[in-house]
Amino acid sequence: MSDNATTRRAIEVRELTRTYHVGxxxxxxxxxxxxxxxxxxxxxxxxxxxxxxxxxxxxxGGLDTPTSGTIVVEGRxxxxxxxxxxxxxRRETIGFVFQSFFLVPTLTAEANLRLALTxxxxxxxxxxxxxxxxxxxxxxxxxxHHRPGQLSVGQQQRVAVARAIVHKPPVxxxxxxxxxxxxxxxxxxxxxLAELNRDLGTTVVMVTHDERLAAEYCRRTVAMADGQLVxxxxxx
Length: 236
Prior knowledge:
Blueprint: E1 9-22, E2 25-38, E3 42-46, H1 53-60, E4 68-73, E5 76-77, H2 83-93, E6 94-97, H3 109-119, H4 124-137, H5 153-165, E7 171-175, H6 183-200, E8 203-208, H7 211-217, E9 220-225, E10 228-234
């Protein structure tokens, strides 16, 4: 993202640490991480397993709390929120895409999205309109009445993406979204995420072990190792 008068930070992470107590030992998952993500950016967090990528993503998403440090997302200090407030924060601000799809197998693609909206307190015509729009964004309008078992793996992941964006969150967090996909389908999913980033202006932060995919599609890659940021590179 280029610097201009309208640039603002969607995510600000400062001196973030996360220590887990395992038996008599301490595991330092994050060690003083600082990270800025501009609104509308597409950032790839890369590094080997255990480098702290997913821990950082979970903390930004309010799924866990840090040992120390601050996280400000869309102007809100996530580290100061109560458990109830974090729940509302996730519902209003964050969309999640995981390696596993977590779709309800007995529901159609459209019904999976409607269920997600119902849990967020959206009903009636608004719920139908949002579900239809999200399926259209991921190119699955003609599969809206299919259950997950009737869809390909790539199509199931697209439904998961649609569910993540159905409430139009400003920030989308994706944790290894291509891990269960073959190479061609992984590229299709990355094209979709890049399109959502470009056309909807959604800020995307994605964890991946595939540095080539990140370099090809992300606007910026951030390398992690041993719980710390060790390098950043912007797309040419």
